[in-house]
User: Which sequence fits this backbone?
């Protein structure tokens, strides 16, 4: 059974057929999905969406690019929302220096605050980091993130840095990018990483894998990603599916699985 550790089914792209699409996921062999929030409004939608589907879990948090909307008041609301049932992580949070805005100072401030929230609630974190490798690692270390646990979403950095995160016990979210022709650096990372550190993610509706690249992504497309990982690691497709599903359950501490 397949576990999608990172999807955005609250996105507008699913407005027309969200219900029927989610209903169909178990038929595609999908055992679990974590719907990851990016903004305050998507936190609201995530908390309500997970109530309707037994296989759907939620992560609550504000993406670095959306942090300008946070205030003490809305953060207090976010804290309460993170205590909802079926919320299994704080995310996606982090730093995104690809865009000028919001100011890096603002991004860092709310990254700190949301890491503190994760610590307070005893939840793992889902990290978004783009062109901000050094600051991300430094802040995670300041917060003893190795104890929090979590996943680096859509890992895009070097093999050297991957070794740092591996030491911290983090999981690596591997998605559609690994199937792209120009994904040389990521292929190297996936080849190197022990299978027990890898989890599958779609980032749906974004980043659909080859051969459906460019289309609206959804959890059933994880099979293409699992196939590519199997090729790179020279193991069977079934092993990738089974082991990454176990990893996902450990990452999000489901079924009483021990964190490790
Ligand atoms: Ni995402």
Assistant:
């Amino acid at each position: 059974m397949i576990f999608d550790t990172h999807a955005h089914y609250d996105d507008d792209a699913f407005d027309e057929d969200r219900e029927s699409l989610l209903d169909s996921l178990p038929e595609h062999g999908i055992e679990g999905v974590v719907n990851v929030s990016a903004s305050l409004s998507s936190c609201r939608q995530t908390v309500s969406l997970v109530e309707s589907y037994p296989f759907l879990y939620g992560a609550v948090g504000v993406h670095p690019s959306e942090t300008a909307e946070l205030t003490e008041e809305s953060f207090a609301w976010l804290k309460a929302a993170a205590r909802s049932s079926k919320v299994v992580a704080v995310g996606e949070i982090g730093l995104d220096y690809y865009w000028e805005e919001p100011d890096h100072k603002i991004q860092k401030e709310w990254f700190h605050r949301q890491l503190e929230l994760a610590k307070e609630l005893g939840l793992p974190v889902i990290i978004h980091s783009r062109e901000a490798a050094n600051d991300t690692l430094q802040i995670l270390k300041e917060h003893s993130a190795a104890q929090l646990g979590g996943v680096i979403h859509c890992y895009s950095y070097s093999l050297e840095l991957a070794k740092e995160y591996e030491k911290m016990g983090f999981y690596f979210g591997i998605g559609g990018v690994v199937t792209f022709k120009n994904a040389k650096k990521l292929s190297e990372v996936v080849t190197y990483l022990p299978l027990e550190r890898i989890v599958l993610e779609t980032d749906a509706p974004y980043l659909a894998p080859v051969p459906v690249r460019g289309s609206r992504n959804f959890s059933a497309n994880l099979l293409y990603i699992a196939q590519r990982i199997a090729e790179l690691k020279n193991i069977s497709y079934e092993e990738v599916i089974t082991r990454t599903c176990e990893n996902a359950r450990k990452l999000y501490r489901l079924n009483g699985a021990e964190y490790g």
Summary: The two ends are 21 Å apart (CA to CA). The chain has a mean pLDDT of 96. The pocket of nickel (II) ion is lined by residues 6, 8, 36, 92, 153, 203 (CB under 6 Å).
